[in-house]
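Support reply, case 0932

Customer input (verbatim):
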Amino acid sequence: MSGFASVVFDCDSTLVRIEGIDELAGDAAGEIRALTDAAMRGEVPLEDVYGRRLDLIRPTRARVDEVGRMYVDTLVPHAREVVAALRWLGKTVRILSGGLAPPVQAVAAELGLASDDVAAVGITFAADGAYMGFDRESPLARSGGKARVLAKWDLPRPVLLVGDGATDLEARPAVDAFAAYMGVVYRPAVAEGADFVLRDESLAPVLALACSDEDRERLRDSPWAELV
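Our regenerated output:
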C-alpha cells in the first residue's frame, strides 16, 4: 500500500461524537436537528439552513465556548492517538469543518494542531458576549465549500478526506479518496458514495488506511503499534 501524504478530518460526528449546532440549540433542538440532518443527508443545500439555524439559536460567546469544552470531552476513541501517529509519520493533518470556528479550534488545540491547520466558520459577538452574526462569506457555510477550501490548501498528495456528511462527499473530487466515517451516525447516501466505509467507533482504521507499508514498519516500534 502506498498510503496517503495528507489526512483531512471533518469535526462534528467524526472527530467528536456530537453535532455542535445541536448542542447549542436549547429549546429549538428538535427543529435544529431536523435541519442539520436534512443538510447532512444532502436533501437540502447547506446554505438554506446555516443562517436560519443560527438566527433561531443566537448563541452567546459563553455557550459557544462551552460547546468547545464538550467537543474535547466527546472526542471519538483513538482520535488523539491517530492524529499523533499521523503527525509523527510526517503526514499533513488538517480539520475541515462547517462548524463554528471557536469549538473546532478547541479540538485542534487538544490534538496538537495549529490554528492554521483548521478551516471552520467564523462567528462574531458583541462586547457583552451576545451573538452578532457569522461569516456569511465563508465557503464552508454553503454547499460545495469544502472542495474550494481543499483546492486553496493545495495539500501534499495523495489526500484522504474523512467525514460523515453530504458536504464531505461533495468534496470527493478535490481529494484522492474519501472515507465515510459512520462510527457516530450512519448516513446511507454518504456511505454509498465513499471509497471506504468505516463503521468502527474508533478512528484507528484511519491510521491503517493512511499508512504505506514503510509507515507500518516504522509504527511497529512506536507507541501506536497496536492501532494498526
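We compared this against your earlier run and they match. Two observations from our side: The chain is about 40% helix and 15% strand. The first strand starts at residue 6 and ends at 9. Please reopen the case if you see a mismatch on your end.
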